[in-house]
C-alpha cells in the first residue's frame, strides 16, 4: 500500500475502546512476564466486590472467568463507557462514568479489590478510601519513557523521563506495597499506518498528534520502515500490588 493509503486507513479507524486487534499482522507488543490478565482473573475470582478503574472498553476485564458478586467498572470517556457496558453485560458488571481527577462515587470501604490496567493517573487517596480494610489494589501501569523512540521520531530529542513515585504515593495514602515489578517490553511496527493509528489511539505518546500536523515526520518514518522492515520502540511496564491494613 502507498503512504497515502496507509494514512487514510489509519485516519478512518475508530479509536474508541481498548481493543488492539486491528494491529494484528501490522504491529506487535511483547507482554510482561507476570501476566496481568491471569493475575486479574485470579484476584477477581477471590473477591466479594471488585472495582476496575479506567477500564477503557472493558476488554481485559471482560475476559475474567469468575466475576465477584459485585463488579463495577469506572471510565472517564463516554464512548468507552458505552462499549464497556456491552462488553461486561455477560458478567453482570455495571459501568459508572466518572470525572478525570474527581472523586469516586462510592462509599468508603465498598470494595475488597480495586484494579486498573494502564491508567493515565492513579487517584491514590480515593483508592484507599473505597477499599475495605484488608482490601487489595492491583494495577499494571505504563512507565514514563515508554515508546520514547517513537515519541522522538515525531517530536525530536526529549528531556529525560521522570518516573512516578508509585510506592511513595501508595504509602502516603495508607496502603502497603506487597509486590512491585518493572520490565521493558519490545514494540514493533511494520507499516506507517500502524504507527499513525497507534499515535491516534495512545495519544499521550505524542500529545498534540494529528496525522496532518505530523505528516512530514510520518513520511520520513515511512521510508525508514520500508527500508528496514520495521520500527522498534520499547515500552516500560510496572506492576504494583498494595493492601489496605486490616
Description:
There is one protein chain. This protein has 246 residues and is α/β, with parallel strands linked by helices. The chain has a single domain (3-243), classed as Rossmann fold. Helix content is 32%, strand content 26%. The protein has 8 helices and 8 strands, in the order αβαββαββαβααβααβ. It has helices spanning 3-12, 36-46, 78-88, 124-130, 148-155, 166-172, 192-201, 215-228, and strands at residues 27-29, 49-53, 70-75, 94-97, 111-117, 131-142, 176-189, 231-243. Strands 1-7-8-6-5-2-3-4 form an 8-stranded mixed beta sheet, with helices on both faces. Helix 1 packs parallel to helix 7. It comes from Amycolatopsis xylanica. This is Methyltransferase domain-containing protein. One of its GO terms (molecular function) is S-adenosylmethionine-dependent methyltransferase activity.
Amino acid at each position: 500500500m502507498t503512504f497515502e493509503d496507509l494514512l487514510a486507513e489509519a485516519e478512518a479507524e475508530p479509536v474508541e475502546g481498548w481493543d488492539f486487534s486491528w494491529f494484528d499482522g501490522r504491529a506487535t507488543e511483547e507482554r510482561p512476564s507476570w501476566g496481568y490478565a491471569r493475575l486479574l482473573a485470579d484476584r477477581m475470582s477471590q473477591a466479594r466486590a471488585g472495582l476496575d478503574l479506567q477500564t477503557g472498553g472493558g476488554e481485559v476485564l471482560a475476559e475474567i472467568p469468575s466475576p465477584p458478586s459485585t463488579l463495577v467498572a469506572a471510565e472517564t470517556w463516554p464512548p468507552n463507557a458505552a462499549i464497556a457496558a456491552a462488553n461486561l453485560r455477560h458478567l453482570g458488571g455495571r459501568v459508572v462514568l466518572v470525572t478525570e481527577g474527581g472523586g469516586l462515587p462510592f462509599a468508603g470501604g465498598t470494595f475488597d479489590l480495586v484494579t486498573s490496567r494502564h491508567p493515565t493517573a492513579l487517584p491514590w487517596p480515593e483508592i484507599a478510601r473505597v477499599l475495605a480494610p484488608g482490601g487489595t489494589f492491583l494495577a499494571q501501569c505504563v512507565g514514563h519513557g515508554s515508546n520514547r523512540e517513537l515519541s522522538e521520531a515525531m517530536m525530536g530529542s526529549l528531556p529525560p523521563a521522570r518516573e512516578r513515585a508509585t510506592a511513595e504515593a501508595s504509602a502516603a495514602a495508607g496502603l502497603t506495597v506487597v509486590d512491585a515489578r518493572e520490565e521493558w517490553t519490545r514494540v514493533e511496527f511494520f507499516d506507517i499506518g500502524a504507527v499513525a493509528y497507534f499515535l491516534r489511539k495512545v495519544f499521550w505518546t505524542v500529545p498534540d498528534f494529528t496525522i496532518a500536523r505530523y505528516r512530514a515526520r510520518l513520511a520520513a518514518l515511512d521510508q525508514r520502515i520500508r527500508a528496514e522492515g520495521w520500527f522498534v520502540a520499547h515500552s516500560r511496564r510496572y506492576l504494583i500490588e498494595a493492601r489496605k491494613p486490616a
